[in-house]
Each structure stands twice: as structure tokens, then as C-alpha cells.
Amino acid sequence: MLTKLRTGPAAWWALLCVLIFGVVVALSVGRFMLSPWTVVQQLGALLSHQSGLTNPDIAVEMAEKLVLHVRLPRVLTALLIGASLAMCGAALQGAFRNPLVGPQILGISSGAALGGCLAIVFFSSMLSILGMAFAGGLLAIALVYGISRVGGRNHILVLVLAGVVTGAFFSSLLSLLTYFADPNDTLPAIVFWLMGSFATASYLKLGWVLVPMLAGMTVLCLMRFRINVLSMGDEHAASLGVRVERIRWLMLGCVALIVSSGVAVAGAIGWVGLIVPHFARMLVGPDHRVLLPASALMGAIFMLCVDTVARSLTVAEIPLDVITSLIGAPVFATVLRSAHGKGGAHA
Questions:
Q1: Cα 67 from chain centroid?
Q2: What's this model's pTM, rounded to 2 decimal places?
């Protein structure tokens, strides 16, 4: 039984300190370097509702615009998407008792990406991209869940294979869509969007996805006790009065809402929801009362680091999905080998 919390306050303070340090570093580095003290001054002026301009110096004015209007919305978007994707992964792995499950493995990201690309081709508005990405994510999880039903039960291996098949199917449709897209206009927008980037982040886009993402994360946090019960098995959960099917579908709907919102604003970013919960589980244990918030904090830190490297390592910005794949693929292989060595894939 999951009754004890394994993590003391020191771990939480450490994560918060790392997060704050990462934010200051992310706001400091880039093509135009700023000192951390300048960043802290600008943030302090923002929090106190005062102008960061203590004198009419052009350099100070440029620093204010760079920190508050260019880098800050990008940093906030990275924190929100990283936290939400990691929380989704932790919830999925617990509810399905499978450490190999994630939004990408279940095909949700591919379905949302297909819906978003259809919106780019035919509508191009932010609201249509968000709506169609959500519809694509829901369709993906419906297909996966339907395929994985074997004999009235969800078998772990069949679930993972169903996710792989569904993701491949949506990826094929996506490739077909890019093949017929206008190479002078639509195609570059689709390709750039699919590779994942926060380059177009703004306060407006952040406002569009803030409410659905926070709503989905709040519902997942409220379900943390039920996810604990689901992680013990469907039969045990049903014996305790938990409506397994209803809870699981509600959770999947929240995951689809979160993932589709992230895809709409930043494109398809894989592996975050798969690998971050494993590191959070090492730190705080399997209890979802602490695992979900710990995953959110570590996911925010991870995505912030990835984005900082992506825009600072070279002159041309590196797509986010390239970096997350380079990190996620070996971690996934390690987890897969560990799960196989234990004779199962239970969380």
C-alpha cells in the first residue's frame, strides 16, 4: 500500500532552486548575452509593476525588451509544456501500470500533430489548430484503447503495440498530407511546426493554452488517489469501488487536452512524458500524491534546459524534438531492458 511519503522538504526546495536558477540562466543566455543581475533586475521590476529603466540608457532599454518581451514568454511556455507533458506521462504510466507508456508511445502526439497540420492547411487560426489537435488526440486514444481490448482486458504488451501501430498510421497520414502541401507556403510551416520549437512563443499563444493545460493538470492532480488505486490493478481498484473505465477515460481525455494544447503552440515534442517520470520516480517513489507534482517540476526543468540548449548551442536553432529524441531513445531502451529483465512492465 502507498501510505508513506518518501520525500522530505529538502528535495522540493532543491527542485525549486534548480528551477529558479534555470529560469535566470535561460533568460540570460542566447545570441545576445545578458548578466544574471540584469535579468534579476528586470524580473524584479516586472513583479513590482515598475519599469526596469532607471535611466534612458539604450542598452538597458534593449535588455528590458529582450528579457520581458522576447525570452520570458518563451521560458514560461517551455515551463508549462514541460510540466504538463511530464505529469501526463506519470499519470499514464501509473494508470496503465506500465513504465513504457507515454503520450508519444500511445500515439496521442501523432494524432494531435495530424489534427494540427490539417488545421494549418485548411484554417491556420490558433483556435482551429487547438480544436483539431484535440480531436486528433482523442481519436488516437480511442483507437489505441479499442485495439488493446483483448478478452475484455487491457494487456500491457498489446497496449504498447496498439500505440505504436496507431502512431505509425497517423504518421503515414501526416506524411501524405505534407506530400500534397504547397511547397512554397504551407509545407515549410508544417515542417518547422512538426519539429517542435518555441521560437514563435508569445504571451498571446501562452494565454490560449494556459487555461486548457491548467484545467487538465488540475483534474489529474485531483485524481492522484485514484491513480494510486489503478496502479494496483483493475480488479483491486474495482473491489475498492473505483469505476475503472470511467476514471481511465476521464484521465485520457485530460491527457489529450494537455498534449493537443502543447502541440498547438509548440509542435510535436516527444519523449518528455516518457522519460521524466522515471527520474521523478527515482526521487520520490511511486506514490502519485508526490509523483505528479515532482514530475511536473522536473519536466519544467528538463524542457527549459532543452530549449536553452536548442537556441544557444548553434547559430541556427536546433529543433526541440531532435534533442529530446537523442536523450529519450537511450533512456527508453534502458527502461525497456530493465522491464524485460524483471519479467514484466509494471510501474
A1: 24
A2: 0.88
- Residue 328: closest CA among 310, 297, 306: 306
Q: Which pLDDT does position 295 carry in this prediction?
A: 96
Let me know: does 98 contact 335? Beta carbons within 8 Å: no
Question: Which of 7-29 are b and which e, b meaning 16 or more Cβ less than 10 Å from the residue's Cβ?
Answer: beeeebeebeebbeebbbebbbb
Whether pLDDT at 1 is above 50: no
Residue 71 has pLDDT above 90, yes or no: yes
* Contact of 267 with 201, CB cutoff 8 Å: no
Residue 342: what pLDDT?
58
List Cα–Cα distances, 69 to 26, 72, 251, in angstroms. Answer: 14, 6, 35
Q: Which three cell numbers stand for residue 33?
A: 548575452
**Per residue in 88-114, pLDDT tens?**
999 999 988 888 788 887 788 889 999
